[in-house]
Amino acid sequence: MKPEDALRAIAAARGDAICVPTMTTAPAWRAIAPEDLSVTCVGFMGGASALGLGLALARPERRVIVFDGDGSLLMQLGSLATIAGARPRNLAHLVFKNGVYHTSGSQEIPGGLIVDFVTMAKGAGYREAYAVRDLGELQRCLPSILGEEGPLLVELWTTLAEQTPMTAPRGAPFHAQVEGLRQALLKPHL
Questions:
Q1: Which of 91, 120, 124, 137 is in the most buried spot, having the most CB atoms within 10 Å?
Q2: pTM over cut 0.85
Q3: How many Cβ atoms sit within 10 Å of the Cβ of residue 90?
Q4: Tens digit of each residue's pLDDT (9 = 90 or more) over 126-144
């Protein structure tokens, strides 16, 4: 499935979740959901899951959805055990699996498409983990998955994104995104 199509399905089902897009999901997410509660994790590869964990622990009343890349997650694979140990009930960890480091030139990640993040997440102690290989399946199962208790991981088999942070127009700087999210979260939750 195209990552942009997966992101549109997520946008339709996310409700008021805080979203943490990273790397190749960031440009499309900015276009699909420009006014949502999100902070983009670009520039610190592998940091999306830790950023998402911090938000999930700080705001347990809100769903937090991390849009991770397979190459990014491999950079900080220990975050799976850290997240599992913290047991955030509100965290959904979506891994966009394309087998390459798309942002830096599409070099194959170690293990390519053979890497099994579902098995790794379950082995680390996530409550649940799934692999989704096509858009129709994602659209059917996403509402129930996002209603489940976390932490949970969904491995999304995707093609390459149309744009990467290196080819897309720049969004707001990270510090400005953080301040915007902070201000939005200070407002009463309805």
A1: 91
A2: no
A3: 20
A4: 999 999 999 999 999 999 9
